[in-house]
Write a structure and sequence with these properties.
This protein is of the alpha/beta class and about 290 residues long. The protein contains six helices and 14 strands. It is globular and about 65 Å long.
Length: about 290
């Protein structure tokens, strides 16, 4: 009985902690060494905000994020699942509009940006259930219109070329692979590109980027597993990739994959354990700096 009481107490403490950690927002900083003939390039990566409305506890953090970053990054990339429902559209557009960039701001969307979260799936991130529930469509047109009006550029199934002081940077993105809406024929690198970056919501198509010579691919979707057990790592990732690739910065072939743990959670599964919510400022250091 004593052992059972102790286990019950530990379980209660872990459960309480998981609720607290889900709101322990932070800005992380990573250095990424790439073979590209550039000096340095800074990229702010934000993903999976899952905003439910203006009263979300994440909103004050997003509003402070420019101050936490400090100097204006060269690029800002957002990799989907920005909202949980239509009430999240206005605050997420307003919050993201505060994030300035020297060169450009690009986004791709995830399934939650197309379908409002209405059905409770308390164990979704523990069961590995990848089925998208039947839900009321979100006002995706309003979300994208708001982003575009604030200067954000869609990278879904598109390629963009940026002529910068470093040279030409290629950004190629895909629509959500989780929903099988992605196209990959445009993912290739040209000889004149000094740097090639890929954007996707689910990281499952990272191989298309890496095999075509991209330097870094950015993704979200997995929430880093949301629940991580040291030293095992993520229990479930809702991704076909090995669990070790579904969180953080990892080398894949000759390139890198950065999977953001995200800043939010489903409001039906508002927990995190050993996987704090974060935005990430990545500093790409190229061969020209060595």
């Amino acid at each position: 009985m004593a052992l059972l009481r102790r286990l019950t107490a530990l379980g209660a403490i872990a459960a309480a902690y998981s609720l607290v950690e889900a709101r322990s927002y932070r800005l992380a900083r990573r250095v990424v060494r790439v073979q590209a003939p550039i000096d340095r390039l800074t990229i702010l990566h934000v993903s999976d905000t899952h905003l439910t409305g203006p009263d979300s506890p994440l909103v004050p953090f997003l509003e402070r994020l420019p101050e936490l970053v400090g100097t204006t990054p060269d690029l800002v990339v957002v990799t989907g699942d920005l909202i949980e429902n239509n009430r999240g559209i206005e605050p997420v557009v307003a919050s993201l509009s505060r994030l300035e960039a020297q060169v450009g701001r690009y986004y791709v969307l995830g399934s939650h940006d197309y379908f409002q979260s209405e059905n409770p799936h308390f164990l979704k991130y523990l069961t590995g259930d990848r089925k998208i529930p039947v839900s009321t469509p979100a006002d995706t047109a309003e979300l994208e219109s708001g982003l575009r009006d604030k200067g954000w550029i869609s990278a879904m199934n598109q390629t963009h070329h940026l002529d910068t002081s470093l040279g030409r940077i290629r950004i190629a993105g895909v629509a959500d692979p989780y929903m099988n809406w992605h196209e990959t024929a445009h993912i290739h690198r040209a000889p004149g590109d000094v740097l090639a970056l890929g954007l996707m919501h689910a990281p499952d198509v990272v191989s298309e980027c890496i095999l075509n010579g991209f330097d870094v691919a950015f993704a979200g979707h997995t929430h880093g597993g949301q629940v991580r057990i040291p030293p095992i790592g993520s229990i479930v990732t809702n991704s076909d990739l090995p669990a070790g690739l579904a969180y953080g910065l990892n080398r894949v072939g000759a390139g890198w994959l950065h999977v953001s743990p995200g800043l939010g959670t489903s409001h039906y599964s508002p927990i995190r354990f050993c996987c704090p919510p974060e935005a990430t400022l990545l500093e790409l250091v190229g061969s020209a700096s060595r």
